[in-house]
Design a protein that fits this description.
119 residues; globular; mainly alpha
Length: 119
């Protein structure tokens, strides 16, 4: 399977939310969403419940399902507005939005840096 990279550098097809979307077993899906909500609340200081974790087909989806957090993501909104493949292609790389995001997502930073270094 090809890597599905979000604008910010996260890998959508390994994202727990995307994996829960693809899960066929309803009990397993519910357990995954409970854990996702717990992790989001801890990492991002949110107050999410398992039922708030909606299906998601990936950040780049146009007509598919999109997690509520992705819908309101300012990085995604900016990248879509600039019509870039991901933030590594942006003339404003690394912007303040990304710097703040990278503080908790070092792997995303590393992925985008690799792409940026090849441009």
């Amino acid at each position: 399977m090809d890597e599905m990279l979000a604008y910010c550098g996260l890998v959508c097809n390994t994202c727990p939310i995307h994996l829960a979307t693809k899960e066929q077993g309803q009990e397993k899906k519910r357990e995954m969403r409970v854990e996702i909500a717990r992790r989001i609340n801890k990492l991002y200081k949110e107050k999410l419940k398992a039922e708030d974790v909606t299906d998601c087909d990936g950040c780049l989806t146009e007509d598919g399902r999109l997690f509520s957090g992705c819908k309101k993501c300012q990085i995604r909104k900016c990248a879509k507005g600039k019509a870039v493949e991901n933030c590594a292609y942006c003339s404003d790389y690394v912007c303040e939005k990304l710097k703040k995001f990278f503080a908790t997502e070092a792997d995303a930073k590393a992925r985008l840096a690799v792409i940026r270094n090849t441009l």
